[in-house]
């Protein structure tokens, strides 16, 4: 649940805060419904629900990492070249991860 509230604070993750908040009640509901079929069906349905949520978060992580708007074109100075190198790409994933861990 704290992860859902951290998602709510970050603009690039804001639309995932509600699915993250609701994943636990949904897993419980799915488990109860499928437990009528059998214990194995309940566990399998709960696992599938968790993996769908995990896939959604992974998909978003890939989108955040590949966001071209976060690309900076600041040259890197190296002592051996005495000048500029190719522009480096800053994906911003470190800032996103740090912000998630702070909250």
How would you sum up this structure, described in words?
The structure is a single chain. With 103 residues, the chain is mainly alpha-helical. The protein has one domain. The protein is 61% helix and 4% strand. The protein is built from 4 helices and 2 strands. Strands 1-2 form a two-stranded antiparallel ribbon. Strand 1 (77-78) and strand 2 (83-84) form a beta hairpin. It starts with a helix and ends with a helix.
Shape: elongated
- End-to-end separation in angstroms reads 11 Å
Number of helices: 4
Main β-sheet, spatial strand arrangement: 1-2
Counting helices, strands and paired strands, the structural category is: mainly alpha
Mean pLDDT: 77
- How much helicity do the residues have? 55-70%
pLDDT < 50 stretches: none
Strand content: under 5%
List keywords for this structure.
mainly alpha, 4 helices, 103 residues, 2 strands, two-stranded antiparallel ribbon
Q: Quick recap of the structure?
A:
With 103 residues, the chain is mainly alpha-helical. It has four helices and two strands.
Q: Can you lay out the helices and strands and say which pair or pack?
A:
Elements: H1 2-9, H2 17-34, H3 39-65, E1 77-78, E2 83-84, H4 93-102
Antiparallel strand pairs: 1-2
């Amino acid at each position: 649940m704290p992860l859902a509230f951290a998602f709510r604070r970050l603009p690039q993750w804001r639309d995932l805060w509600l699915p993250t908040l609701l994943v636990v009640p949904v897993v419980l509901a799915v488990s109860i419904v499928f437990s009528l079929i059998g214990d194995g069906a309940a566990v399998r349905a709960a696992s599938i629900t968790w993996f769908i949520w995990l896939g959604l978060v992974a998909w978003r992580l890939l989108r955040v990492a590949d966001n071209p708007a976060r690309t900076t074109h600041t040259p890197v100075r190296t002592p051996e070249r005495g000048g500029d190198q190719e522009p480096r790409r800053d994906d911003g994933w470190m800032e996103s991860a740090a912000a998630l861990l702070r909250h």
